[in-house]
Amino acid sequence: MAEREQIKKQAPSRSEPEQVEEVPAGSKRGEELKAELDELLDEIDEVLEDNAEEFVKSYVQKGGE
Amino acid sequence: MTGPCPAATLQAAASRPGPCPVATQVGPTNAPKRGNVGLVAIVKVLGMETEYGIIVRGAAEPNPIAASSALINAYVASLERRVEWDFGDESPGRDARGFVRDTAVAPEVETHLVNAVLTNGARYYVDHAHPEFSTPECSTVWEAVLYDKAGEAILARSVEAAARYLPAGQQVSVYKNNSDGKGNSYGSHENYLMDRAVPFSRVVQHVVPHFVTRQIFTGAGKVGCEAPGAEQVDFQLTQRADFFEEEVGLETTLKRPIVNTRDEPHCDAQKYRRLHVILGDANLSEVADFLKVGTTALVLAMVEDDWFSRQGRDYSLAAPVKAMRQVSYDLSLRQPLQLANGRRMTAVEVQWEHLDLARKYGEDIGYEAVGGPEVGAEIVRRWEEVLAGLESDPLSLANRLDWVAKYRMVSGYRERHGLDWRDPRLFAMDLQYHDVRPERSLYARAGMERLLSPADVARAMTEPPVTTRAYFRGRCLQRWPWAIAAANWDSLVFDLGNDPLRRVPMMEPLRGTAAHVDQLLARCSTPAELLEQLGS
């Protein structure tokens, strides 16, 4: 873990993912986008595989090509 | 032989000297006829080959090979019922069989894997432990995207059809992605027809920088990382960057190279090579798919016309393999890459300069090689739109690029539920983005911009493209499936019962089009007549 943190510190130019998701806050368009995303996330809650952990664990592929 | 020498439509005299001198001509679209003398990029005939991920649930010992076979057999059987093809006389041992037999049970694992050629000219088969769909040969990037999406629809229908054959309690599902998140990857390949005369070293020199930097719009996005030593990556642009270790090589399953040297032209090898591109992600997004093949076809046309050197440009990277991961891991899109000549540029900047070169290429030379001025203009327009979006506000592309759409969903879900990036629900979302069943797919819910009409995609599931040899293959399979013993990219083998098998070579990808063979096919009411007319 210490090593991981060190790697992170050594690469300060890499922006954290959070930076990308900034939406113009407060603007009308920003609110619309937020509402759209909320709706989408509600839907995802409904269709997401019931047992995510089991699903992810069972998803094992042989290499191809 | 009477008539206008139909054999000329299908083969070049170089491979089979015959009574048709016109057969030596490559075709009208290939003639160097543009402004500048000496610039002769050939038409970028192209295709895509996608291996799909597959899982079987409810089975004690899931067997992906058997499941893939069942999937394809079930699909073909569902078509057979509809058009009532008669496969009574098939002998199962024959190689490269055109069709698979209707079957009422999931087939057992055979050494001889299922391999179907469809009436749209595509190949649908089991490769390793995956169902794989290869589009027919296409002559424009629009067609390539259309048939790639038709492939998805075929897989979705296959899943439905397979449900009838699977034992009770078992369920198969299929994913158009490239990684299982555990270090196993499977491919989504593109192929482009190129002039054999172009030095391969020049191809490598100029495609590598494009391949590395195009990831910013071709990436399908991935939660986490599968490359040793990069475990701190929470989300990256691509599925595939983790799996590439070499710059150039022949391998596709280990030590994967950025430029693959597999040399299987499936046509006249004296004249052509078929660049086999293995590093791309499978795209669900139609815009990303269009740009992936569109920008690449354009770059390859420029390479053929030596456009980079003529414009004094060289974007060779100092360390391409490292740069591939660097680009994939850099969600800020702002980390500069080191070029071999000392410049430092971001991937977005490299792509901007490629776009400028492509625009000038269009003005000076034209876009004939990529399907004409309208297609070229659309590639350039979309390219610019996406680069501008990536530069100013990547999230504005959440309805156009796969990685942005996926990132928006996954990070939104993560925030809402206060999850760690290692939470299995986020990995599950990643996988489910690629589920081919519309009722399960997260891609289908992302509000993505569509370029194709559902009616066109539905038609492309059974109808071949009209502008390549896939047309002849597809039409023959539609009309006389019982008479075709084997179909391959560069030939059709007919079995008329009493005679020896008769092979019709198709060595020119741009012969055998609707314009070439429609009249011929209309004149023939039996395959015997067709073969007589062809002089085969």
Description of the structure:
The complex is a heterodimer of chains A (65) and B (536). Chain A is mostly helical. Chain A has a domain at 24-58. Chain A contains 3 helices and no strands. The longest helix of chain A has 20 residues, at 28-47. Chain A is elongated. Chain B has 536 residues and is of the alpha+beta class. Chain B has a domain at 192-246 and 277-453. In chain B, a hairpin with a 7-residue loop joins β16 (491-494) and β17. In chain B, α2 packs across α5 and α3 (200-213) packs antiparallel against α5. Chain B starts with 45 loop residues before the first strand and ends with a helix. Residues 1-9, 11-37 and 82-111 of chain B have low confidence and may be disordered.
Q: How many distinct beta strands of chain B? A: 17
Average pLDDT of chain B: 87
- Proportion in β-strands of chain A: under 5%
Poorly predicted runs of chain B: 1-9, 11-37, 82-111
Q: Summarize the main sheet of chain B.
A: 6 strands, antiparallel
Q: Assembly type of the shown chains?
A: heterodimer
Count of discrete alpha- or pi-helical segments spanning 4 or more residues of chain A: 3
Structural class of chain A: mainly alpha
Indicate the mean pLDDT of chain A: 70
Widest sheet: strand ordering of chain B: 3-4-5-1-7-12
Inertia-based shape of chain A = elongated
Number of helices of chain B: 15
Helix content of chain B: 25-40%
Distance between the termini of chain A: 35 Å
Shape of chain B: globular
Q: Sheet bearing the most strands of chain A, described?
A: none
What is the CA–CA distance across the termini of chain B?
Answer: 11 Å
Largest interface: A-B, 37 and 56 residues
Strand segment tally of chain A = 0
